[in-house]
Please model this.
Amino acid sequence: MSDMVLLSKRLTIRKNYFDIFRNYCKLYISPKLATIGIKEGEMREQTGQILGSNDLKLHSKTWFPEGPPKAVLAVVHGAGEHVDRYPHFVEALVPDGFILAGYDQCGHGKSEGQRGHINSWSEYREDCHCFLGQIRDSFPELPFFLYGHSMGSLIVLDYILHYPEGLQGAILSGTALDPMDAAPPFLVQVAKIMSRIIPSFSLKVKLEGSALSRVPETAAAYMNDPLVHWTRSVRWGTESLAIIEEIKARMAEINLPTLILHGEMDPLVAAAGAQELYDQIQHPDKTLKIYAEGLHEPHNDVNYPQTVADIRDWMNEHL
Model:
């Protein structure tokens, strides 16, 4: 056999191996697998990066069930937190056959970007679009659900109003349409002026863990988490207020199955906002669950087993 034929065969073999590896990891830029040393049948966990809409590197994480997956749940987290604060989803949903995927928003967690700052709300929406697009490329045959908590609920609502196709349903937690600490009109006007002059000017607005969960260990973990931050820029504030008004004006346009979850005693965003959203959605397949005495994070509060079971059952009913 000639040297040229041998070289050609070797190159073909290498290309085939490269294609297999690339197809497995195509969701990620510089993927870092956390599955080294696992035994067959154990849950797999994978971390990596995606390139966001502003060319910022965004930290991503995906958990895979041990058997064939039946659907994907993509998580969009809230302000100041990160994707690793959803452990009960990993514990309950992944073993039931769901791929769980999420990413740290720009300026959050392990992602790049100024903490708590955006120039435009569309950055959040387009980052979500980038992330979901790459997941769909990796799992084109699977149904997709989209979950958003607090600020993430606003991102999801804005997203499904712009990109409603290809989703099996949306799940909204701690829906941030009726903030309890909304600034008075005078301060809103001041913030709008500052947003035009020095948009990145930021303040720290500390949030107590006891407002999120009645589980002392969960509240303490939040306060001591080095990846949690309480920084918000004036532009972030004005963009958040603007997107709340835009969503409220378009709630009737939501046209896919929706599950809305809220804590009855949420001290950050009133349950009345979740009720208003439910009332305004015209799609017939909609569900609202208000958890008695619950705080801001139903998925981390004392009632988390019921919350996660409600999410799991609802997704299974919509497959």
Q: What stands out?
A: The longest strand covers residues 44-51. The longest helix spans residues 3-25. The two ends are 54 Å apart (CA to CA). Confidence is low (pLDDT under 50) at residues 3-40.
